[in-house]
Design goal:
Blueprint lengths: L1 H22 L9 H14 L4 H33 L1
Helix pairs in contact: 1-3, 2-3
Keywords: Membrane, Transmembrane, Transmembrane helix
Length: 84
Amino acid sequence: MATLARKVLKIALFIGLFLISVRYIPLSSEWSASEAHAWWRASDWLGVGDPDDLYFVFWVTIELIVAALAYLAIIKIWRWYRTN
């Protein structure tokens, strides 16, 4: 029962970290001409119709990586704290 509670807590921690990081995605629709050109070229190259979709997926991926790194850091610090 304790291992199930630990797993649920770890999953909740990761989801919480991800939701906190996704909340701060810079959803800016105001791009400079060079930025817009770069996003259009990248979306054409990847076959995505709208560059805003590519922009959103790009930032969600970055936030997922940030949440995973924060999760790993918290777990490592917690284990270090418990051994001391």
